[in-house]
Structure formats: C-alpha cells, structure tokens
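User: Run a structure prediction on this.
Assistant: Running it now.
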Amino acid sequence: MNANDSLVLIVVISVLGPILGSLIGVIKRPSLLYLCNMLCFAAGVMLAISFLELVPQSISLSTVWICGLGVVIGSFVMYLLDILLPHLHPGLCMQEQGRNLKRTAVYLIVGIFLHNFPEGMAIAIGEVADTKVSLIIALAIAIHNIPEGICTSGPYFHATGARIKSFLLSASTAIPILAGFITARHLYHEITGDLIAIIIGATAGLMIYISADELIPAACQSGAGHRTIFSLIAGALLVIVLGGI
C-alpha cells in the first residue's frame, strides 16, 4: 500500500465512526453489552498503542522527561475540555433528570464536535511516527466514536422525530476530526526534535485519558460485568500482533 492509499484509508476510517454511529442511532440502538464491548475494545487498543508505540517513540526522539511532559499536556488538555464543554460517557447514553432531551442532545453534539478536533490531530501522528500507528489510532478512535454517534443522534431523533436532520447533525461531528487531521499534517512538517516528542507524548496522554475517564468507566458502570474485560484484552492483542507484522 503506497502513501496516498494509506492516507485515504486513514481518512475514511477516521470519519466512519461518527457517521456509522449516527446512522445506527436513528435506526435501531444495539444492545448495551455490545456497546460496552466496543468501548472496552477501543480502550485496549488506545492503551496498548500509547504504552507500546507512542511512549517509546517519544522517548527515543528526546528524553523520558520530555515524553512525560507530553503525556501530562495531552491528558490535561482533555481534562480541560471535559470541564469546559458538555460531553458524555457514551456507554450509558442516559438523560439527566429534569433535562430537556432535545437541548441535552444539542449540547452533547456541540461538546463532541469540539472534543473531536484533538482526536483528529492524534490520528495524524503517522507524519512523525509511522503510518501503521496512524491506522491503528484511527481505528481505535473510530470505534470509540460509534457509541458517541449513537448517543447523540438517537436522543435528538427521539425528541424531534426528524430522522435525517438528527443523522446529519450527529454525523457532522466527523468534520473536526478531519480538520484536526489536516491541521496536524501540515503542522508536523514545520517542527522537529523535542517538540515532536512532546506531541507524540501528548497523543499518548490524550488516549490514556479517554480510556481511563470515559471508555472503561462507562463499560463498568453499565452492569455488563467482567465479560467486557476480554474485549479490552483483544484490543491490546490487536496492537501487539500488528506491531509484529
């Protein structure tokens, strides 16, 4: 596969999650167990790619301290976004008591729209690391975004009855992923050295935060039991296997 083909595949995978999730949300929501397994699988992929690929790559380009700084920056950025913007833990998809469902859905769509920009930047990490890493990150983020798409298009459709509008509003959260990806690809060509190491470390911090704060807690709180842990392990094994190819 040449560089252009890889780039097209990365872009397609990147936008597939929100679009597919939004489509499912206005048709028929899958079972809670299925959603939780998807969340844990994505968490396994994100954690494995962070610790087995991105952190070692960052350290090799600079020092362990620079890598650590990047991890802190990436996780802190996501923490600030969670505080400043409305967001959701997609495994639960529950409306808060006393809230207007339509308004809640709009807030969630806006929140996810803005959250997805740094995720798009993370996918572009192949420009300074490895194309295969970008493909794996794109896959993990796409899987993570499917439940989010379900949890935004579904409530809006339920509140308004407008199927197409609900799908389009929710699917539009793919736009900042593309914007972040394009921005980062151009940015990475202009920087070198320690800054690249910080960016790679920040990408790891971003994905570790998403896994620990959203994916794993959402699956555990759902009552799905211990069965989802095997999906997390499967996600980590996928990264290990692909790393050996």
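The chain has one domain: 50-243.
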